[in-house]
Amino acid sequence: MAPGCLFSFLLLAIWALHAIAVSVDCSIPPLSLPWSNITVSANGIAVTRGIELGIGSPTQIFSLRPSTVLNNTRIANVLDCGSATNTSCVGGKGGVFDSSKSSTFVVSLKNRWNGSAADTETATGAYVYFHDVINFQANGTVAGYPLVMNSDLISGPASGLPLGQNSSFLAAVTEARVAPSSIWGLDAGDRSLSPRDGSLVVGGYDTSRIVGDLTTFPIGNWTKLPCPLQVTVTEVWYFTPGTSTRNSLFDSNTTSMTACVEPFQQRFTFLPSMVKQFARWTRYNDTYPALTFPSPPDGALEIKLDNGYRTIVPNDHLFTPKRGSDDDGHYVVTNSSIVESGIEDNTDNMDGDSDLRPILGGLFLSFNYLVVDYDNNRFQMASSLQGAQHSIANIVLVCTPTPTPMVPDTNSSQTDQSDGDESSRAAAIGGGTAGGIALVAAMGGICYFFSRKRRQAQRLGEKRAAQRLTPTDLVPRPLSVAQKPGELALVCQFILIHR
What we know:
26 strands, 29% strand, alpha+beta
């Protein structure tokens, strides 16, 4: 190989090894974010429960509820509330953004924006695509982060932290090395009258919040609406604890229901026929609005999935006093004489709606821990630990890509878990190194091939010139390395020019 080509090959090798080096870094600890009450107004009054996110310079505080439906971070515009001093409005929206107060705010054209494919937009909404700095307190900072400022005074804002399959949030925190991988674990906490904070972990999961073994499910497909965490429900019972009576919410025409596990919504969304059955078994009096009661019925709910996975929602969670935001934006009991159920009333949709999506929401996730791995097309669930607040986390790092099982045995000792993590990291790095060597060798062969063809063309040109052919006979055909040259194409073109 000629000296010039040798130099170019070394340059190519450095490029390839750099790409390998930045693709996996399992030395980064998982990003751990509490799901708790966050003060979101400058006067310190408005409080919203969610994941804290600081946006802009200086920082403006937001409390965002996670959503697998969203792929991009959406926040509310301060103009929707009139001003940042409207604490009830600010608290209800989880914070509002004033772009005029951020020195790092950069508005973008939608088609030049660096977020994921745009999420669904409503006909009545107004959307501003922009970039700004985000931070997670002491957990790290990401510059140039893609955001959407969403205003929709008719349908209402859909502010949220995106955990969808193409989440720009997960991509940004891994690329900025704030988190080691895009795998995430979620405990939604508890919004009952005995609340419990939740937790989001990116790059791992918290074993201290799990009871029993994790059960694996495939990532689902949805024909019209996004639904990555999809399950098949084969039975839902309303029953009175301590009795043998179990009343099914399925009617004679229903044998199963496909539902989305979605943390953004708190209540259950069932088929209208199931809601009608629920009203029947609870002896609902329709003089009260939207499945509310003067006193709580005495039953609980049990949900069974097609693989036998079961969840019980107890009575004190299924039925609670009417709550909402007060004038200061606090989530409080607003009417103690009315009892709400944890099921959305959609019986006015009995004729059927093709966009109806049954949802197992935050109430379901109060009793189930999630571990989601989009790269390996699967997610896992296990019962979540109930009761007192968690004071000591036991976060397990999960570095991807890895050929080993997604999570270690939850029944193993801490030592076994640590050993498993080390072997996973070694396997990932070792596999990446071996692949990198093969890649460099392959690219070296490609570049040698192009170099050899170029020398042959030069010799042929010299021979034809000696035969006094016309100049047009010596015009080479253009080299097509790629339709849209990427890094490899550009490097190979550099090699051919500078060999």
